[in-house]
């Protein structure tokens, strides 16, 4: 029995030695990655310094052109949004990491139904993308705890990067166009055949709503000018999808900029890449409109 | 409760602690093991745990009856009771798995002849692991009848054989004799069993989480939307599927065997490098071995004896029926039926050439590697298996034909690439191929370690395996493919 315990103790020691060694290697690769999503997430969490930040999911990522805002507002701007139906669990953790480093002057948050509805395709697991930043801020750790994987992430550095080795190894092969400052343009025109409006027949998730409210409060406590925004869709559902964030914005006296049914865009396939995402041309036109609104 | 989940780990550690705490009292240990097995099974379905208990008691009594009449030398009554057991076992399988399929098939087959019957599909929930534990139940009465074992007097021991939690959901399908012998012996904690068992659990997790679940991401992306994918992508995904199945099922089997070993039981092996063969008989002698050996003993050999007057035709009939049973064992679907028949057909050339009962060895060159003609034959068998598994993977025959329709009509377009998934899966698959090659052709050659490290081989291997699982694994608690059978 003593021998067995010795075996187990040695395994534990070796495991931690290997885990820390490989984990540090993976962390290094993650941070120096140039081409992949890892670069974007890493930069958003650890390196932004800009006065104006855009946060949100894929619609935010493709719709807000930082160079347009920089020109119009005369400030530095970065689009810190990420694709993959990210939701408030991720956005709030990211906000925590950003605020642990510096306080931006202004944040524009593109809200999506996934940020307050109990959607089956976007739950707590989305915060898993914050795993490499475990321990960076209390908010980030809190979000990771909600995923139920905080302690595994804490115990194993390698686990924080699970499945990412190939993209990390190739992460230095090319280079992302950094002049775009986080914006990811989409080139192409929408094929309108068979399109129907996206419906959201899901109940409200109170945990998400509470986090959305905490997101607003945290910004207000740090005197950050926060705007909640909804960008246009090619085809819109008739229901009032954004009632919850609108009420929250009203409650906390912050701007709610609603372009969901903006006639400049709705029904104009030449401005869209798919029914929910503007193409390059649409994004530039939209950003010009929003930059003027923010200026006011 | 998925075997490769944290929940199972906590459950297993709890069971292990109490199980060996009462190791001095064998009866208590068995009662606790049985309670743990039923608790584990009830996590899947409480009602079905009731059915399991009912069938267990029934077969225990039947075994008692068979033994009783054999002792009285009344073989006729013993045979009747044995047949009752077989009918109950097959009846349970038929009722839960095949009734709807047969009824619906009959209704649709006779409707063109103007006979219109109606059948309301019964909403039956198939008990998890039914195909596995009914085979164990039947083999118990059959083995008593054939004099291979005596009736098990202790119902707790017998119930442990049926409900043993590491194997109840997806096998391996154990035989009564070795298991009952072990369950009736005192099982003291054995550190060596722990070390070997733990490594097998880790290896199983590696196969499942790093290979099977990674490949599943790629294969599902194509198979679930085959109409939108090119021929090359569908063919590539289909070629990966046998390997995916192997990693998934062998992964489960390794974990089950490892868990059983830590509990002091040696259960049947299920896989032995099934793709390193040059004919279909070789493949089935190494794939899902506990099922194929069960069917060989209880279906093929009796049928072969029955048909022996017909010579080679009798053997062909026996093997075709046996393979059809293998196909249908997986479920009530025309795809499974044809899967079995398809494999049966590949046996015919072997029988005609008189190679069926010969164990054909792979010719190796001076360096110990297979010679090119044999390497081609192995590749050929892999292709044969791939086609069969395309049937297996299809939800129904329509999907199977549609997939082939897509292959023939979508020649334009390149290979669907998901670089991250593919590279992750490739790295781990190479590790599995390396290990299999070593075990198959270079069993004495160990991976070189410096002298100082040799002393810590077990520890180093385990630590590296854990790190690899964490680095390459998919942690979505995906269920095992064979869980559904």
Labels describing this entry:
heterodimer; A: 296 residues; alpha/beta; Rossmann fold; five-stranded parallel sheet; two-stranded antiparallel ribbon; B: 485 residues; mainly alpha; 2 domains; 19 helices; globular
Q: Helix tally of chain B?
A: 19
CATH third-tier fold name of chain A: Rossmann fold
Q: Count structural domains of chain B.
A: 2
Gyration radius of chain A (Cα, Å) is 21 Å
pLDDT averaged over residues of chain B: 91
- Strand runs of chain A, count: 7
Helix fraction of chain B, binned, reads: 55-70%
- Name the overall outline of chain A: globular
Q: Structural class, from helix and strand content of chain B?
A: mainly alpha
Strand content of chain B: under 5%
User: So, CATH architecture of chain A?
Assistant: 3-Layer(aba) Sandwich
The quaternary state of the protein chains shown equals heterodimer
Query: Ends of chain A: how far apart?
Result: 75 Å
Of all chain pairs, the largest interface belongs to: A-B, 25 and 26 residues
Q: Give a short account of the largest sheet of chain B.
A: none
CATH class of chain A: Alpha Beta
N/C terminus separation of chain B = 16 Å
Mean pLDDT value of chain A: 92
Shape of chain B: globular
Low-confidence stretches of chain A: none
Helix content of chain A: 40-55%
């Amino acid at each position: 029995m003593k021998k067995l315990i010795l075996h187990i103790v040695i395994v534990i020691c070796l495991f931690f030695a290997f885990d820390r060694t490989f984990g540090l290697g993976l962390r290094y690769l993650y941070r120096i990655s140039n081409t992949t999503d890892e670069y974007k997430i890493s930069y958003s969490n650890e390196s932004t310094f800009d006065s104006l930040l855009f946060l949100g999911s894929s619609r935010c990522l493709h719709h807000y052109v930082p160079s347009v805002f920089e020109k119009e507002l005369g400030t530095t701007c970065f689009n810190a949004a990420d694709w993959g139906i990210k939701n408030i669990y991720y956005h709030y953790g990211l906000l925590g990491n950003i605020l642990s480093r510096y306080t931006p002057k202004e944040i524009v948050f593109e809200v999506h139904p996934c940020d307050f509805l109990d959607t089956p395709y976007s739950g707590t697991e989305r915060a898993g993308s914050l795993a490499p930043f475990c321990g960076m801020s209390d908010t980030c750790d809190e979000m990771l705890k909600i995923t139920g994987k905080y302690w595994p992430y804490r115990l194993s550095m390698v686990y924080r990067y699970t499945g990412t080795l190939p993209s990390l190894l190739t992460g230095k092969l090319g280079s992302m166009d950094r002049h775009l400052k986080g914006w990811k343009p989409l080139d192409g025109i929408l094929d309108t055949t068979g399109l129907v409006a996206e419906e959201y027949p899901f109940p409200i998730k109170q945990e998400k709503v509470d986090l959305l409210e905490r997101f607003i409060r945290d910004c207000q406590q740090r005197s950050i000018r926060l705007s909640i925004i909804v960008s246009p869709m090619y085809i819109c559902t008739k229901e009032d999808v954004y009632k919850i964030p609108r009420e929250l914005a009203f409650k906390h006296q912050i701007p709610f900029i609603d372009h969901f049914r903006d006639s400049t865009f709705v029904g104009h396939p030449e401005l869209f890449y798919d029914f929910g995402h503007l193409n390059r041309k649409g994004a530039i036109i939209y950003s010009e409109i929003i930059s003027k609104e923010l200026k006011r | 409760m998925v075997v490769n989940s944290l929940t199972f780990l906590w459950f297993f550690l709890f069971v292990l602690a109490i199980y060996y705490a009462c190791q001095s009292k064998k009866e208590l240990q068995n009662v606790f093991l049985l309670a743990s097995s039923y608790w584990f099974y009830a996590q899947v379905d409480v009602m079905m745990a009731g059915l399991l208990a009912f069938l267990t008691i029934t077969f225990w009594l039947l075994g008692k009856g068979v033994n009783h009449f054999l002792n009285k030398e009344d073989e006729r009554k013993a045979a009747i009771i044995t047949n009752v057991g077989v009918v109950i076992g097959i009846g349970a399988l038929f009722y839960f798995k095949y009734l709807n399929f047969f009824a619906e098939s009959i209704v649709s087959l006779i409707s063109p002849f103007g006979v219109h019957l109606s059948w309301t599909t019964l909403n039956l929930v198939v008990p998890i692991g039914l195909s596995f534990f009914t085979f164990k139940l039947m083999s118990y009465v059959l083995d008593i009848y054939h004099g291979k074992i005596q009736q098990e007097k202790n119902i707790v021991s017998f119930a442990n054989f049926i409900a043993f939690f590491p194997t109840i959901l997806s096998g391996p399908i154990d035989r009564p004799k070795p298991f009952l012998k072990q369950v009736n012996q005192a099982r003291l904690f054995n550190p060596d069993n722990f070390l070997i068992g733990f490594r097998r659990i880790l290896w199983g997790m590696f196969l499942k989480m790093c290979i099977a679940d990674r490949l599943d991401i790629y294969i599902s992306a194509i198979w679930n939307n085959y109409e939108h994918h090119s021929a090359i992508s569908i063919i590539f995904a289909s070629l990966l599927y046998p390997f995916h199945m192997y990693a998934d099922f062998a992964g489960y089997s390794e974990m089950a065997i490892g868990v059983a070993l830590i509990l002091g039981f040696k259960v049947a092996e299920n896989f032995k490098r099934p793709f390193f063969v040059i004919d279909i008989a070789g493949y089935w002698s190494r794939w899902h071995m506990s099922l194929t050996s069960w069917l060989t003993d209880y279906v093929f050999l009796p049928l072969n004896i029955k048909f022996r007057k017909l010579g080679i035709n009798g053997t062909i009939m026996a093997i075709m029926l046996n393979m059809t049973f293998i196909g249908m064992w997986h479920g009530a679907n025309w795809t499974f039926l044809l899967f079995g028949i398809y494999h049966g057909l590949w046996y015919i050339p072997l029988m005609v050439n008189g190679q069926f009962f010969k164990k054909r060895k792979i010719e190796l060159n001076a360096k110990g590697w297979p010679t090119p003609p044999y390497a081609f034959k192995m590749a050929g068998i892999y292709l044969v298996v791939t086609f069969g598994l395309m049937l297996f993977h299809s939800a129904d025959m329509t999907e199977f034909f549609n997939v082939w329709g897509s292959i023939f009509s979508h020649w334009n377009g390149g290979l669907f690439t998901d670089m991250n998934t593919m590279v992750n899966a490739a790295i781990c698959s190479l590790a599995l191929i390396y290990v299999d090659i070593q075990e198959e052709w270079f069993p004495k050659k160990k991976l070189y370690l410096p002298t100082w490290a040799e002393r810590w081989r077990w520890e180093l291997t385990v630590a590296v395996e854990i790190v690899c699982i964490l680095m390459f694994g998919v942690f979505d608690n995906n269920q095992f493919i064979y869980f559904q059978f």
